[in-house]
Amino acid sequence: MGIHAIYPGPNLSKRSLAHKIYPYLLRNVTAQYPxxxxxxxxxxxxxxxxxxxxxxxxxxxxxYVVSWELDQTLEMPFVLDAVDQAFMRxxxxxxxSDQGSHFTSPQYIQRLLxxxxxxxMDGKCRAIDNIFTERLWRSIKYEEVYxxxxxxxxxxxxxxxxxxxxxxxxxxxxxxxxxxxxxVYHSKN
Length: 189
What we know:
Blueprint: E1 37-47, E2 50-59, E3 65-71, H1 77-89, E4 94-97, H2 101-104, H3 106-114, E5 118-121, H4 131-148, H5 153-169, H6 181-185
Parallel strand pairs: 1-4, 4-5
Antiparallel strand pairs: 1-2, 2-3
């Protein structure tokens, strides 16, 4: 009959009911310096046929993408790899995420606790609690992904790699007085 289901993309935010939820620590808190607050999230990247999944860790003070990983599955290792890479660059005081199963999993939580990172989680259905990372997703999708319509994972990886390099090092941000995230993140001030 030619009937096809159309849906907006995979649901990435379902949590395991057995996992602990941490409170949102950032109400009325503003990032004061690099590595003060990191936000982590996962989004899907549309391909011509299928999806890939992008996890990114963003420094809220500088808007610098500290680390990221792209994978064809939602298996846990790509999230843990991104966290490990981020901790090689810097350790935040607070790490904020949503309540998705990746971010409530014991493997993820143990990594943060081992580094003495305070754990903050968005309120249920509160995407605005992680607004800086949500804004990053908008930038990536409108300035890169939707323009290029990737045919395969190799094209997606090349495009995302180039875009995030541009985002960090050459794309000025109005909120940073027209400096780049890299300039602010690596500044000594």
